[in-house]
Design goal:
Elements: E1 14-19, H1 27-31, E2 36-41, E3 46-50, E4 68-73, H2 76-79, H3 91-100, H4 110-147, H5 151-154, H6 174-181, H7 183-203, H8 264-295, H9 300-326, H10 340-362, H11 378-405, H12 416-443, H13 462-507, H14 521-534, H15 540-565, H16 569-575, H17 580-610, H18 612-625, H19 641-659, E5 662-668, H20 670-681, H21 684-687, E6 690-695, H22 699-706, H23 708-711, H24 713-722, E7 725-729, H25 784-796, H26 809-812
Parallel strand pairs: 1-4, 1-5, 5-6, 6-7
Antiparallel strand pairs: 2-3, 3-4
Helix pairs in contact: 3-4, 3-12, 4-6, 4-7, 4-8, 4-9, 4-11, 4-12, 6-8, 6-10, 7-8, 8-9, 8-10, 9-10, 11-12, 11-15, 12-13, 12-15, 12-17, 13-14, 13-15, 13-17, 16-17, 17-18, 19-20
Amino acid sequence: MSSATPDSQREGPALELLVHGVGGAFPQDMLGDPRTVRVSGDAQAAVFRRTEDEHAEDDPAFPREQPIPEAYCWSNLTSGNSARALWLLLLPFMVANLAHWMRPRAKGMPRTTRLYGVLVRLIALSLTVLMTAAAAEVTLDLPAWQCAGTPDCSRGRGWLGFLSSANGGWWSQPGRRLALAALLPAGLVVLLWYLSNRTWSAYESQRPPTGAGVSEGDTGTDDEEEESEETAPDSSPPSRAVRDTEPGVALRPALGRPGFWYGRRLVARLRAAHTAAGFLVVAAAVAGPAARHDRDGDSTLLDIAGRTLETAIGLLFVFVVCVIARRGRSERRFDARLDRAAVSALPGTALALLALCLLYAFWDRPGWASAGTLPGEWAFRLIVLAQGALTVALAAAAFALQRRARHPRSALWGLGGPAVAMLACALGGVMTGGIAQRVADWLDGPSTAGLDGDGTIPGPPVLLSWQASVIPVLLLALLAPLAWLALRTWLTARRFARDVEEEYGAAEAGTAGPGGWRPDPIRTRRIAGARARADLTDTAPSLVGLISGATLILGAGSVAGAWASGKVPGEAFGDSGLDESVAGAAQYLGSWLIGFGFILFVTWGRRAYRDASARRTIGILWDVGTFWPRAAHPFAPPCYAERAVPDLAWRMSTWTERTGGRLVISGHSQGSVLAASAVWQLPAATRGRVALLTYGSPLERLYGRWFPAYFGPTALLQLRDEVEGWRNLWRHTDPIGGPVRVLDETGRRAVDHEVLRDPVVYGRTSVHPLPEPILGHSDYQADPAFAEERRGLLDRIHPGIPRQSPRHRESRGTEGGQDSSGGSGSSGRSSG
């Protein structure tokens, strides 16, 4: 770390770039002034200043010892539009995408690393297949096949009258009913494709400065899949004097590579494959029952056509799997290519095959009647079985990587990715079962489809009833660990109470008001309780692991029970001599719990559509979950960081290049993760004029533990060595932020400030005559240590030489040339 700059050398302007955290913030609050002006950006994400500071760096009268405050507001990327509340329905896809980034970082194991990525992408594909199959279940099976084929169910439902078998109309044949109903799930697949393509253009098409000079036609020469840091020789963290582009040496961490925040090629490839898979599922649901009927029919031509279509569906699905497994992310260079054969031909071929299946199902088949459930119920069992097998294989790959990596603080000993993948599958199953059971109950009238013998239709697949019955069992199993956590928190608060009184008593001795310092049991309990509750964050991995393990075991039991008995749990346990009433009650209660959970999702999204405060609360979930690029599932909510990180990197690069000034990027909470990611993306020359100030930061406490390959100790140490200065503020009462634990050569913490007291004083003092609140995760800037650390960071930075004088800024603001530092010759406006 460089020494402080003498006052005589601190002549350039200084800028403090503020980045807010989860939940969003308004520029007026961040800058402490109601009069603000947007200096760069758009309605989604923008840079703001106080009106009086709009051109402060060009004003000689502006005091150079004071930094110009500037706020980057990105909350509209996640919680600004009310329609984004519907992203809740994409939650399983988002969780599966997170599993991709949770692998351990191990040197010398490229094949295992690639295998990990392939397995996660296959799990993500199984979720698309599951959700499309669920859409087919509630459109093709329940209404078109079961209800329309049962006069007692279709009677009184005018919207099903023209499809009812009782009317004997042209549409009453099962194949035609299925072909017509198939338009709904096919339309859902088209909608997901459209949203994925549209959100990529809006969020993830921003080029970082390190890749700005690469043209669309640059195809490069590296065709390796899953180009991770383990596929190249590892090296110790380099000094700032080492060039980023030194040939043959992989010096940059993953988050600092040119292609990390530009995943166009992989997202397009995955989007095409998942779209094709969705079309194929719908095609199989339509053509399968017709082909099964034709195998026992008199028409040889229809029999051959059915077998041909089923074979084509199977072969094309195998090709989809190969496309997904073939290639992972390409990060070591800015990859603007597109795999046009896969991207264009694959969805089109699947759509054409779906059209042929619809035409085949429309063919006249006199005397064909629908009975029971739609053929192909076994597909749900196969999907769940495949998800379990893939998750176990993923756990084996993660375990092998963790044995080599040996990250001592990794969540669940490196098995965080498999655990989260299992949760994604469980969420998909809950949503699938919930909507299928509710639609079946709605169609069955007063009876409960699948749960009694009085219904007019058989109801959803048996497996969904088994999955419903294990939900109460899972909730009961969680009561014991939740009670243990509550007891542990209470005992921890009692233990912290003694520490609180000793800490504040020693610090405030002689400074208290009249009567001196005296302990207050209520005040002590509140402070100690806040610290104990903040510590619960560190127990989250254990709870996630417990839920995932129980889900895997209970899910395997559900598949085994459904496959062995072919009956709902109440009937199956009754035949075995066990208590039928208990099994029936669990099945009934679980069914309603699943339905309640799905209804809760819908009502929460509906409330967020109308209520801005609720929409902001939901946005907090996406602030954390959608930070990572879509590397496993293309239909996951879009990655806002692929817009925000290039914005911040461009702003820092162009401002320091134009002014030669000093810059501190100041990030709170999730904003500190964005700030660190943007600093990693900066050209080497720019990083030497940038300092990093983080507070309430989850960089190590959450990201370092759950994503060790990207925020592990090696990456954070390298970040500390590359920037001119880095300081981190944290509190014991903060449930999100914590120390980053980067050590210097002597073994001391090189980045973390001493823990801040919260509250700043225990009782009333002459300086604080009113009770001070417990701030927890908020208001770090109010602590005197914030201004002190910011001043110290600015003092360490040597001003540079501006690339162009201020008077030439307007004349050259639209020129697009790039200098040797990798920055642009623009005026500093953010991309996009």
